[in-house]
């Protein structure tokens, strides 16, 4: 299926690896020019070079921390007139409620709620003025189902989820859609770190933690970041223009619910 977005311009943050990179690659495969951002120069530039070589699209790499004003100013400058925005950054650390004081809470809110909202506030006006836009926020299945050790992720992302629920409906009439993609466990550095952390906490091997996790996922495996990226690209397509304000799980069936 032609997604109808060839020649569009997208920004993907947190794009040097993992799910953000999967989204950037899938958009590039559809002929979308990219601005990609992350904090570390080398992996980001390697990713940019690989995407240019594979897909022949223009890729601008911006070293930027999305939780800072300076980082977002650099992104505004590089982005120009964006058609598509995919917000993403590293997730909050695991732990229990008593591990998280005010500073940890503030950091989680900055990365998982305030930064994506600030990025949307930067780019929604241009999308609205041009009458077309697609925004996808990468959140987490932890938004709909409490997940062991990820209470901070759930708490911070709920604020973003609430903001999107209203804002998506305020801008839908102007050709702009906003949706959230909720990953379950995917094969990325983050899931490897989380498995390692659980292994240390519980005195198990990472392999045992992984096997236990896979047994709880109906699909029987961790997700593929490239396939996750393809779902993201579809949400950014011309055809997805009637999908508004949704929270779409990509979790191999791990969250058990009827609706
Ligand atoms: P990852 O740690 O593998 O990659 C994160 C990317 O974001 C990297 O490119 C990193 O450089 C970049 N980044 C981190 N902090 C940043 C910042 N402040 N500014 C700019 N760039 C930043 O993570 P991932 O597994 O790809 O997950 C992406 C998001 O999805 C995270 O928020 C994570 O919590 C969430 N998530 C992941 C999974 C999973 O199984 N992988 C499951 C649920 C939710």
UniProtKB/TrEMBL annotation:
Listed InterPro entries: NAD(P)-bd_dom_sf, SDR, SDR_fam
Cited Gene3D superfamilies: NAD(P)-binding Rossmann-like Domain
Q: Name one Pfam family in it.
A: adh_short_C2
GO MF annotations for this entry? 3-oxoacyl-[acyl-carrier-protein] reductase (NADPH) activity
Top-level enzyme category = oxidoreductase
Entry keyword set = Oxidoreductase
Q: What is its EC number?
A: 1.1.1.100
Describe the family membership recorded for this protein in Swiss-Prot or TrEMBL.
Belongs to the short-chain dehydrogenases/reductases (SDR) family.
Q: What is the official name of this protein in its record?
A: Short-chain dehydrogenase
Organism of provenance: Rubellimicrobium thermophilum DSM 16684
